[in-house]
Design goal:
EC 2.7.6.1; transferase; globular; nucleotide biosynthesis; alpha/beta; PRTase_dom; six-stranded mixed sheet
């Protein structure tokens, strides 16, 4: 967790603080009063990728509100919004995870909440005072991709219907120069297993870029890359906003030539690289 203070001139400074975890699992955070003597706004940057980080955030916000007598607005930046994929109740007896997480955030009463590339429209609709940084704004931070897309060197692949709107926005950002090809996957509704993947268009001899928001284990992109290569694509790249890569990068060997992702889920130095996969981290 990073905490920043903005003074009356708008200057931003990183604030040091003490924190540790007690042997019983309790999180402890302590700030220095002097660091906020001229603070007009506080910003917290946190990756809420585990329960400990969530508790630490609650403790930090309470400490800051007590320290400033709740007179200083506090903003939150959480690039990866946890539980965003649980945006509907598929089976009776399940929770609506996105709503639970949004309620947790809303109860902390931030003056502004910023997330990156929401999985669907559900999460932004549930979070109070939210700003959603769209995928195209994040992709534009990568000079190499921006140049190749603007010159028409890459054909955009939408991996499924859910990603099609975002993929079209990327093409529109570059004045419609990049061609867009739609892919679709068929799943077993009981197991979630991908039965088959199809592409609607010709990729023979083309360099393609798959764009989506989250890569967890990567099964969707592995199956899609197989079809793309079998249909003659000469180069397959992947742009993912939130790179989790729970199965590592070696699972993409021989299928995906280069992967681009941001540091939303973890800092750049925590990514495990592979000798066989070209990974580029777009640090924000």
């Amino acid at each position: 967790m990073k905490v920043f203070s903005y003074d009356s001139a708008g200057s931003k400074s990183l604030i040091d603080y003490d924190n540790f975890t007690f042997s019983g699992g309790e999180e402890h955070v302590r700030f220095n009063t002097a660091n906020f003597s001229d603070s007009k706004k506080i910003e917290i940057f946190e990756r809420l990728t585990n329960s400990s980080n969530m508790v630490r955030l609650m403790i930090a916000v309470d400490a800051l509100k007590r320290l400033t007598n709740e007179s200083t607005p506090i903003e939150l930046v959480i690039p990866y919004f946890p539980y965003a994929r649980q945006d509907r109740v598929c089976v009776e007896g399940e929770a609506l995870g996105a709503a639970v997480m949004a309620k947790f955030i809303n109860n902390l009463n931030f003056s502004k909440v910023t997330i990156w590339d929401a999985h669907s429209d559900v999460s932004p609709a549930l979070i109070n005072k939210v700003t959603n940084i769209e995928q195209i704004s994040l992709l534009a931070r990568c000079e190499e991709l921006s140049q190749r897309l603007s010159q028409g060197e890459l054909t955009l692949i939408s991996p499924d219907a859910g990603a099609s709107k975002k993929t079209i926005k990327i093409s529109e950002k570059f004045n419609g120069v990049p061609e867009v090809i739609q892919a679709q996957k068929v799943r077993n509704l009981k197991t979630g297993e991908i039965i088959k993947t199809e592409i609607i268009g010709d990729v023979k001899g083309k360099s393609v870029l798959i764009a989506d928001d989250i890569c967890d284990g990567g099964r969707t992109f592995i199956e899609l890359a197989k079809v793309l290569k079998n249909n003659g694509a000469v180069e397959v790249s992947l742009f993912i906003t939130h790179g989790i890569f729970s199965k590592g990068l070696d699972v993409f060997e021989g299928l995906i030539d280069k992967i681009y992702t941001t540091d939303s889920f973890k800092p750049a130095n925590e990514f495990k690289h592979s000798n066989n996969i070209n990974l580029e981290i777009i640090e924000m």
